Amino acid sequence: MSPQSADYVTRVVHDPHAVPADAWDALLRAHPAGAASGPFMRHAYLAALHDSGCATPATGWSPHWVTLWTRGDGALAAAAPLYVKTHSFGEYVFDWAWAQAHHRHGVRYYPKGVVAVPFTPVAGPRLLARDADARAALVHALIAHARAQGLSSLHILLGRDADWAATDANPALVLLPRDTVQFHWHNRHPVRGTPFADWEDLLASLSQDKRKKIRQERRKVAAAGVTFEARRGADITAADWAFFTRCYTQTYVEHGNPPYLNEAFFRQVGQALPQQWLMFIARDAQGTRIAASLVALSDDGASPAAAYGRYWGALARVDCLHFEACYYQPLAWCVAHGVQRFEGGAQGEHKMARALLPTVVHSRHWLAHPAFADAVADYLARERAATSDYRTALQAHAPFRQAPSAPDCAR
């Protein structure tokens, strides 16, 4: 037990509604990175995943939220969305090779523990706490629960610096660091260092071949007679959510995969967190709706600090429609509204041609089996070096006339 653990009562809850929403969100606001972190760690978002049946034991996501309550006044002092999982789908920090290695040696890998937002490759707060002491105690409680449940491992995915300060404070806990690369756009002219004045200013900052390519792709969509409208918050109607879900579902099915999310989820988060959603709806030349993309926004009022490209779908095939719906429309909106950062999600080197740069995001991993922990530690040390080399190589192909350096993920 850590010195701080004696100050708290640990409760593991299996239903998000067992934790008061206002108390959870207060801890999120107290996190150094919580003020502009998007909707994903809000209680309403996580509860919607549960209520809609998207993240439940039936889908391989069993909530084991670890919470700490002060012994004196019984207040919520720390909390983390831990899920006990029977697979590795929907995480975006891939450990399939680790599972296969366990299996080859006759060691069970599943169930495992994951502290993450299901189906969401967006970095943000993961260890919510009222202060650093409570956050350190939370790390001990998470590992204690993983051991008590006989889990093979504990994975804290895509967190922030305050989380890593807590996980790394006690070397005896051995949470191994892992770096992965995403692609983010920053509203910062590579030469002036100031926000882009407008869309043409952004285009002018790009190299000639990239600028030409973007204009060609946008012309193809316009020549097909496709137009877009942007709707935010309360302007997104129930019919819009139903249409979006239809597009999203069909696109998943066309790629041979069942969708992770359903209309009940989208409707619930749309109602609970309206100002944190921006939807682009595409219409063909006859005015028929044919596609939609959904962007999440940080909770900063009229001028959010960050936007997160999340989901899209189409009912008709139009050349370059995906690029228009998922990159050019959102980026133009971000420039017009002074948004500082647009995150394009996991993977995708093609995003660099659309002005997104490689950005490092971080995770931590604890493995119960000592031999596998040593093997993974060795692997991750080599992977981190390879990731650094990969990012350096990508920077040589930056799309700007004068390439800026992309920072690590915002803390």
Structural class: alpha+beta
CATH fold group of the largest domain: Aminopeptidase
Largest sheet, strands/sense/barrel: 11 strands, mixed
Low-confidence stretches are none
In N-to-C order, the SSE pattern is EHHEEEEHEEHEHEHHEHHEEEHEEH
First and last CA, distance: 29 Å
Morphology call: globular
Protein architecture, described:
It comes from Tepidimonas thermarum. This is Peptidogalycan biosysnthesis/recognition. InterPro entries: Acyl_CoA_acyltransferase, FemAB-like. This protein has 11 helices and 15 strands. By secondary structure, it is of the alpha+beta class. It folds into 2 domains: 5-181 and 360-395, Aminopeptidase (3-Layer(aba) Sandwich); 196-339, 3-Layer(aba) Sandwich (Aminopeptidase), CATH 3.40.630. Strands 2-5-6-8-15-9-14-13-12-11-10 form an 11-stranded mixed β-sheet. A 4-stranded antiparallel β-sheet has the order 1-3-4-7, with helices on both faces. The two termini are 29 Å apart. The model has no long low-confidence stretch (mean pLDDT 94).
How would you sum up this structure in a few lines?
This protein is an alpha+beta fold and 411 residues long. The protein folds into 2 domains: 5-181 and 360-395, Gcn5-related N-acetyltransferase (GNAT) (Aminopeptidase, 3-Layer(aba) Sandwich), CATH 3.40.630; 196-339, Aminopeptidase. It is built from 11 helices and 15 strands.
